[in-house]
Write a structure and sequence with these properties.
Belongs to the Nudix hydrolase family. By secondary structure, the chain is an alpha+beta fold. Helices cover 25% and strands 29% of the residues. It is built from 5 helices and 9 strands, in the order ββββαβββααααββ.
Amino acid sequence: MSATRRTIGHKEPMSVTVDLVIFTIRDDVLQVLLVERGNEPFAGCWALPGGYMRSNETLDGAARRELYEETGVDVGRLHLEQLRAYGDPGRDPRGRVVTVAYLALGPDLPAPVAGTDARSARWTAVASALDSGMELAFDHAVILADALEGARRRLEYTTVAAAFCVEPFTVSELRRVYEIIWGFPLDPSNFRRKVTRTEGFLEATGERRMLESGRPAALYRRGGAEALVPPLLRHFSDG
């Protein structure tokens, strides 16, 4: 036996969860789905929906399952992608838990139905959830703030804004998505010029929609491009 004794560190049990930041636009406001926790820890507090990953699931599979259980909406209707992982010690009083947060985006999603471990579920204005002193469970306020900035950044570099629109849609409806998520108005003519000249962003249907005033508006669906080239940067949006 070697004179040098090796100390093997204790392996702390660790669990993996998924948390979902589900954004939609309802009543012209960016809203997030929150659930009221029915169990400890944080019983009675509002939180992002989510749960433990099962032993036979992938991360994406767990996110899809939780998404359907919390919204009843087929994931095929939504844009779903990983945001990032959160694993700071102490983030969950039950023990060492690493969560992988997912960002889900969809147009005017229906009223949610609370899952089995939640008292209730509701859509909440993102601004209210972050700025009104609402205390979210765990580190969900941090995750929500990261998701909001992530969504804003994705609007600059990808075509994901169209995921908030029910097809077919007008350029004005798409512009309103940007204005709601970025939080400031955009010049209509400049926006139209940029998005219609970006290859693969929009695909014209050849149809028009009658408006209350003015000329009928051309209708579009999302094109095949995923990236915006050039990007539609926030600080150059009216330039």
